[in-house]
Structures are given as C-alpha cells and as structure tokens.
Design goal:
By secondary structure, this protein is of the alpha/beta class. It has 13 helices and 8 strands. The strands form 2 sheets. The protein has a 6-stranded parallel sheet with strand order 4-3-8-7-5-6, sandwiched between helices. A two-stranded antiparallel sheet has the order 1-2. The chain is globular, with a radius of gyration of 17 Å. The two termini are 21 Å apart.
C-alpha cells in the first residue's frame, strides 16, 4: 500500500518512516518499475513553492521523503504520528545495507572531484559485499548533449539497480526527472550532501542538533556564504506553513 502524500505548501510529501521508504525502494527494484526519490527538507519545499515547474518535478516523484525535522513535525501535527525523518545519508546507508544480501548494484553520480571515489571506498569499508559498479563526477556546469548521452551510456552499461545522485537541490531533482526512463536503473535517489557526509569530506551535525531541528544552523556555520541564500527562506517557510496549518491559505499541489 502506498503511503499518503500530504500537501505542504503545494509539495506532496510522503507520510513515511525509514523502514517504509526502504521497502518502497526494494519494491521498485523487484518489479523493475522506474521511479525517483526526492529527499526533501524545508528549503527544497520553498524552492518548489516558488517554482511551478520544480513543484511538478517533486510531485511526480515516486516518493518525496520528509528529510528535515520541520517537515516531520508538520506531518505529525497533521495527524501522521508514525512519520520519522527520512534523511539522505541514513536512507543511503539503509538501502545499501539492505541490498548487500539482495545483490543490488549501485552507481554513484555526483559529488565534487574525488568525492564519489572516496564515498565508494567508505561505503565498502562499512558494508562488506556492497556492489558499487560505477562512479561519475560531472563537471560543475550543464552537460552538452553529447556529454549527456555519454553519461547515460556509462550508467546503463553497468546495469545498476540504484543510481545515487549527489548534485545538490534542485539540480539533482531536475536531473532525475529529465532522465526518468532514459536511465535504465529502477531507482534514482537524490541525496545531495550525503556524498560529502558519508565520504568523510564534511562533518555531520551532532545527533542532538539533527533531532532538535538545528542541523541547518550547524551547516550554516560551516558554510555561511554558500548556504545563507538557502536558509534565509526558513522564516517565510514557518509563516506559510502556519497559515496552511490553520486553514488560512491553500496551496495547489
């Protein structure tokens, strides 16, 4: 049974927990049904709220997970008490761990120079028997048509079950939507900074900050210049979410 999708500022977020998210990925791989997963914190909701085309990308996903604690709390206030945070790095580890016995083949697409290689090494060290069949780090620009065809050929030649996409949001969501049906893997999962966190390139926030909804503050202090434009949207998110929660404003999803 598919989980409910709950409208948050027009983005239909899956009311789900980690076990359900992993089970859905396993189901797509078993049936070879092609889909993509958007791992969605509040700043991604705000980006999609302001951009109708991006909103359609999120709402066409097979699963749009509650990545940030603000999203989790809103879903709980809407009556979905069993929802938990489905955080990109944890989802990646969970699917990889669950897939070792199933023989899943993983492709790593994204990250900065050397990050995908470091991530592959780290994941294999954690999970004995993990099958990483390919890696590709795209340049920090739009690909030409010829380069895009080469990337598709490279990915499809390895016959992966899961393509992990680490391009940051919203670039990774647009990429997955544009390549649905062209990438022959059953599942593409956009996990953004999970590439940097799990490779050891960047530190994750302490668990108490993650659980308290303060991971954004930790990341802002780590990269203020790059992340300030993202997190300055949060007061507007809280205001709009409260209007929706109180029934004072509707958002088309």
């Amino acid at each position: 049974m598919l989980p409910n999708r709950v409208n948050i500022l027009g983005i239909n977020v899956s009311a789900i927990d980690m076990a359900q998210a992993i089970a859905m990925v396993n189901g797509w791989i078993a049936t070879r049904e092609k889909s993509y997963v958007c791992v969605t914190p509040a700043h991604a909701v705000m980006d999609a709220y302001r951009d109708p085309q991006l909103r359609r990308v999120f709402n066409a996903s097979g699963m749009t997970t509650p990545d940030g604690m603000a999203i989790v709390w809103l879903l709980k206030l809407r009556g979905y008490r069993s929802v938990t945070r489905v955080y990109g790095p944890d989802l990646m580890l969970g699917v990889c761990r669950d897939g070792v016995a199933r023989g899943y083949r993983h492709f790593l697409y994204g990250g900065g120079e050397g990050v995908a290689n470091a991530l592959g090494t780290e994941l294999r060290a954690r999970l004995d028997g993990l099958r990483i069949v390919g890696r590709y780090t795209p340049p920090f620009r739009d690909l030409t048509d010829a380069e895009d065809r080469m990337v598709l050929e490279t990915i499809n030649a390895t016959s992966p079950d899961v393509v992990w996409v680490g391009l940051s949001s919203p670039k990774q969501e647009r990429w997955m939507a544009a390549h649905l049906g062209k990438v022959q893997a059953p599942v593409m999962i956009g996990v953004g900074a999970a590439f940097d966190f799990l490779s050891g390139r960047m530190r994750q926030a302490p668990l108490w900050m993650q659980r308290g909804g303060l991971e954004w503050l930790f990341r802002l202090m780590s990269e203020p210049k790059r992340l300030w434009p993202r997190y300055r949207q949060y007061p507007a998110f809280v205001f709009l979410a409260m209007l929706q929660l109180l029934g004072l404003r509707r958002f088309d999803g």
